[in-house]
Amino acid sequence: MTTLPRPLRHLRNARLADGSIVDVELSGSLVRSVRPAGSTDAGTSATATTADAASGAAADTLDLDGFLLLTAPAEPHAHLDKALSWDLIDPPMGDLGLAIDSWKRYSAVMTVDSIADRARSQALAMLQNGTTAIRCHVDILQGDQPMRGVQALLRVRDELRGIVDIELTALAGPTVPDAHIHEALDLGVELVGGAPHLADDPDADLRRLLAIAERRSRGVDMHTDESLHGAVTMHTLAEVVRDWPASRPVTAGHCVRLGTLEPVELDAVIREMVLSNIGVVTLPITNLYLQGWEHPVSTPRGLTAVRALLDAGVRLGAGADNVRDPFNPVGRSDALETASLLVTAGHLTLDEAYAAVSDGARSVMSLPAAGVAVGAKAELLAVRGGSLSDVIANAPADRYVVHEGRLVAQSEVRRQIALPAASSMSEGAPTVSITQQTPSAPAPDPILETR
User: What's the pLDDT at 383?
Assistant: First the structure.
C-alpha cells in the first residue's frame, strides 16, 4: 500500500514551451485556470500555517521559477517484466533473434518475486523522470507456471496505484495457447497483444489474437512487422479492426517494415491505417539497437515511417520499449531520451518529438487530454530549463512530477565544480562563483523509498 502524496493547488511562475510565464491553478485532478504570472493573487491555501503563508511556501503551492512546465510523459510500450535483467543474464549483443533466445532461457528460472522487484524498480525510475502512465506488455511464459509475469505485474500495478497508472497487455507469442490468454485477461490484464511477425503464418496468428480480443471486447496492442524484410501484416490488422467500436482501441507497435516501403506502397498502407484509426508506437532506442545487424554497410535506422505517419494524421506515440535487458542493454528510463532520439534519428522537430512522448502517447493509450490547459488532467512535469530544446538536449535531473494534481516525485541535483588554480588563471581575471539552487517546495509524502 502507498500513502497518497499531498495535493497541489497552485503552480507559480512556470515557463511554458512557447516562452510564456504563467500561474496555474489546479482543482483536484484537473487544471482549473492558466493565467499570466502575477496577474492574479494565487494566494495561499486556507489550511496553510501562518509561517507557510509568510514564507510564500504554502503546502499546496510550487514556485516553478526556472522550470519548464510540460505535459507529463506517458510510456505507451514498456516491458517491465524484462527490465533491468541485462546484468543478470549477460546476453550476447545482437539482433532480435538472439535477444529472444537469451530471454527464453532466463525466463524459465524467474520467480514472481524477482519479476516484481525489477518491474517495481523500473516503474519508479520512470516515475522519477516524469512518466505518470505506463502501458506494459507482459509475457505469458513457457512452462507449467505461465502466469508468473502476469501475477508479478498485477502486484506492482496495485502497489503503485495512486502514484503511477499501469495498464497491462498480454504478450502472447505464437505458441501460447488461447486458454492462457483468456486466463491472463481473467486475472485482470486489460489488452490483448502478441508478436504475429514471429509466427510461421503471421496473418493467421494475428487473426487468432484479434478474434480473442473481439470475443472478450478488449482492445489490442500488437508488436507489428518488427523487421526490415518480410510480410506487411498491417493490411490484415487494418482490415479486421476497421469496424471495431472506438471503445476497443487498436495500437500497433514498432512497425519497422513501414520504414522500408517505397512511397506508393507506404501511402496505400497508411490510408488503410487512417480509415481504421490505428495508433502507432515508435520505439527508437530498441529498434536502433536491434535492427540492421545484417547490414554492416549503410546500416538502416530501423524506425517506422514517422514523418509519413504524422503528415497523414496517424496518431503517433513514442516509447522506450526495453530498458537494460537482452533487447536493449542501455536506456535511462527517461522520455526525454526518447524525444532526443526522435529528433536525431527520426528527424522530427523538437515540438513533434516531445508531443510523441506526451500527448501522442496519451492518445494512443486512450487516456484523457492532459497538460497546461483549462479542463485538462493535471499530469505535469516541471524540468529545470529555459526552453524545450534545452530540456530535451540536457535532460536536467531537477524535476517535479505531478500525477492527478498531486506531487508524486521530486528530484534535486547538487553540483560542485572546481575552479582553476590561481596560477593558471589570466592575470586580473575575476573569481567566479556559481550556485544552482532548486526553489523550495513541499516534498511528497513518503511513498516507497528507493536507493
Answer: 98
Among candidate residues 329, 320, 321, 290, the one with its CA nearest the CA of residue 88: 329
Of 289, 291, 297, 356, nearest in space to 325 by CA: 289
Residue 308 pLDDT > 80: yes
Q: Which residue stretches of 201-298 are H helix?
A: 202-216, 234-241, 263-276, 284-290
Note the pLDDT tens digit of each residue in 195-239: 999 999 999 999 999 999 999 999 999 999 999 998 899 999 999
Secondary structure of residue 167 in the 3-state scheme: strand
For cell 499546496, the residue is: 60
For 258, which DSSP code? Answer: G
CA distance readout (Å), 315 to 130, 167, 361, 442: 22, 19, 8, 37
- pLDDT at residue 435, rounded to an integer: 46
Q: What is the mean pLDDT of residues 64-82?
A: 98
The Cα-based distances of 68 to 101, 131, 338, 361, 409 in angstroms read 43, 16, 18, 20, 16
Q: How would DSSP label each residue in 286-300? A: HHHHHTTTT-SSS--
Spatial CA neighbour of 377 closest among 135, 162, 72, 126: 72
CA distance 212 to 208: 7
Domain boundaries, the chain: 10-71+372-424, 74-364
CATH architecture type of domain 10-71+372-424: Roll (2.30)
Tens of pLDDT, residues 149-175: 999 999 999 999 999 999 999 999 999
Confidence bin at 5 (pLDDT 50/70/90): confident
Cα–Cα distance measured from residue 324 to residue 319, given in angstroms and rounded to the nearest whole number: 14
Distances (CA, A) of 134 to 30, 160, 186, 406, 427: 20, 11, 20, 17, 56
| Amino acid letter, residue 199 | A
Long-range (24+ apart) CB contacts under 8 A made by 394-400 are: 395/332, 395/334, 395/336, 395/337, 395/340, 398/67, 398/438, 399/128, 399/129, 399/130, 400/62, 400/64, 400/67, 400/441
Locus of grid cell 509561517: 51
Measured over the CA atoms of residue 50, residue 447, residue 384 and residue 368, the dihedral's sign is negative
Task: Quote the pLDDT of residue 46.
Answer: 35
Assigned CATH topology for domain 74-364: TIM Barrel (3.20.20)
Q: What is the DSSP letter of 328?
A: B
Q: What are phi and psi of 10, to 5 degrees?
A: -125, 135
